Amino acid sequence: MPFFFLFILAVTIEITLGVCTVDNVQNSQGEIMSGHYLSCKFENISSDLYRKVQPYFFHLGYNGIEWLEISDTDNRILSLEGYLKFPVNDLRIYNANIHEIYHNAFSDLESYLSRLSLKNNKLSSIEDYYFKGLHLTYLDLSFNNISNINENSFIDCGTLETLILKNNFLSELPPNLFKRSLTSLTHLDISFNQILSLDNQIFFSLNSLFELRINNNYLNDLDKNILSENRNLAYLYINNNQFRGFHNLNLPTLSITFINASHNTINFFNFSSNINIRTLDLSSNGITSTKNVSLANATVNRLLLDNNNLESTHDTFFISFPLLSDFSLTNNKLKQLNRNFKNTTKLVKVNLAKNYLRSSDLLNLPKSLNYLHLSFNNLTEIEFNSLHDLKMLKVLCLDHNQIRKIDLGSFKDLNQLIKLDLSNNEIYVLEIGVFVGLNALQHIDLSFNRLHQVSGNVFYNLRSLKVINLSKTKVTYNELEAILLHLPNVEKIGLAENGWSCSRIVDIMHKFGKKVIDVGDYTTTNVDGVACNLQVQDSSNLSHLETANTNIVDGVAYKHEDIQKTKNLSRLLEIVNLSDSKLHTIEVLLIFLNVFIGILFLNILYLSFIWIAFIRKSNNNKNARINSDQELQLISCS
């Protein structure tokens, strides 16, 4: 608790005085890069900021700092004039309570500044003089209160390539906003606003536009020619609006990488000319029949129809997608697969999880598949010939079904399969030969099944296996020992929720040199994140050998001194184990002690500030007297 008050003291001083620190630049994965950036928190933009920042630029050099970040401060009206005279290329001012920007606020940075971020502030409008004289390529004004933009707001931003206006309160955009400037834009983000409509020609001058985000607004219609001049458009986000469909949409490009049209009520999406779409997302559109999904003049490589209300696919649906390679229909109401589905020769990846498919539907799958996801369906068995045509399959997910039976030889043709997930089913028996053909298998998950008397010989041919998950399968120590004799390359084993004693898990790890799959059970007795019980003993495997120096406990040999150490540890735990009443008394005393120490620290803090104020006042009075004496001396000398 004293450390808590020390922390409060440090934070209070930091907020009062402000602090600037140098941190390492990190990429999106959190990896530390070679550069540095300067971060100033709780620091108002004033001459004090210049004084604090100057040594860092002097020490690291102007090229040694990637960007300057100023955050968590209060500058209602922003002006950097006279306070930042360094060649800052990238400036980020976050959460600074900025309501307005002065004329010539960035005049000292005109020759240097190319990237500017003012997100998380309180700007309500953009005046035409805000960015005058700057040569910006990147401008982020997101998470402000902007509700008003005029056609001259970015008149001096002709070099701008990225403009981010998301999460504001814009209800409309001036028709000529981009015509007089911003012709170099490649990335435009006006998402998460309140825009009701867009002028038919608003994007005509944006010939270099590469990515457009107009998602999460209140748009219900777009003119068919609104994007007809955007020949470089590759990414289009129109999701989370109120669109019902697009008729003869004119996209001048021959190919577009990604269109996100999810979370609308779209039933038709037709194009005026032939176009290839690498990924089209029509998820969450309330689609009830594939007959309503019209995609005239479009070839699609990846089609997402997740979270709709589809119950089946009509006979000619897949004929319309000759180049389809990735298809997802998760979380629909699909009860059967159309037989024509089998004839789609380009399909590589199919995700049909969370539907109502049955075991017989396995016969209607295309032969070209590499990835098949059938989790959360109504499969009850895997028949001998169900998967024979899927010779290219590498990943097969059949988890969370009601599979009770797997016919012998069901996997015999899947010699390229790398991962097999059979977890959370109702498998009771695994017969020898059930995994024949899975010579390349590296990962198998059998967890959460009702396995009974598993023979080690079941896994005799899985020589490439690296991970086997047997969590909550009631597998015994002897069974696992026999299994691992056939699996020399296994690196990890899943043993959670099997009721094993800790000594058995440790013995398996040491005896076979394996690791257990960490399931995060760190709040109880555990071995590497797998919960275990120090008191559970399996009597069927417990025997005593009358030797001079060893005992057998849980099927593991231990020396007498090891047993004695365990007993001593138990006694120590009994001594340390205090009664609840005593612990409660100690907790109450600790609480009173911490409260007392806290009050003491607050008093010290209060007295310290009074003393500092008194010293400052004394020094000011002393300086005033000295200045007065000097003035008198000067007058007398004259």
What does this structure look like?
The protein starts with a helix and ends with a helix. The strands form seven sheets. The protein has a 22-stranded mixed β-sheet. Strands 4-6 form a two-stranded parallel sheet. The protein has five domains: 12-115, no CATH class; 123-199 and 207-216, Leucine-rich repeat, LRR (right-handed beta-alpha superhelix), CATH 3.80.10; 220-378, Leucine-rich repeat, LRR (right-handed beta-alpha superhelix); 392-536, Ribonuclease Inhibitor (Leucine-rich repeat, LRR (right-handed beta-alpha superhelix), Alpha-Beta Horseshoe); 547-571, no CATH class. It has helices spanning 2-17, 47-60, 477-484, 502-512, 560-576, 580-637; strands at 19-26, 32-41, 65-71, 77-78, 90-94, 100-101, 115-117, 125-126, 138-140, 148-149, 162-164, 187-189, 211-213, 235-237, 245-249, 255-260, 268-271, 275-281, 298-304, 326-328, 349-351, 371-373, 381-382, 395-397, 405-406, 419-421, 443-445, 467-469, 492-494, 515-516, 526-527, 530-531, 550-553, 556-559. The chain has 638 residues and is of the alpha/beta class.
State the main characteristics.
638 residues, alpha/beta, Leucine-rich repeat, LRR (right-handed beta-alpha superhelix), 22-stranded mixed sheet, two-stranded parallel ribbon, disordered C terminus
Number of domains: 5
Briefly note the CATH topology name of the largest domain.
Leucine-rich repeat, LRR (right-handed beta-alpha superhelix)
Number of helices: 6
CATH class of the largest domain: Alpha Beta
Low-confidence stretches: 1-17, 538-583, 619-638
Distance between the termini: 65 Å
Number of strands: 34
Question: Based on CA inertia axes, which overall geometry fits?
Answer: flat
Q: What would CATH call the architecture of the largest domain?
A: Alpha-Beta Horseshoe
Could you estimate the helical fraction of the residues in percent? 10-25%
Strand content bin: 15-25%
Over the alpha carbons, how many angstroms does the gyration radius reach? 35 Å
Sheet with the most strands? 22 strands, mixed
| The CATH homology group name of the largest domain | Ribonuclease Inhibitor
Structural class: alpha/beta
Mean pLDDT: 83
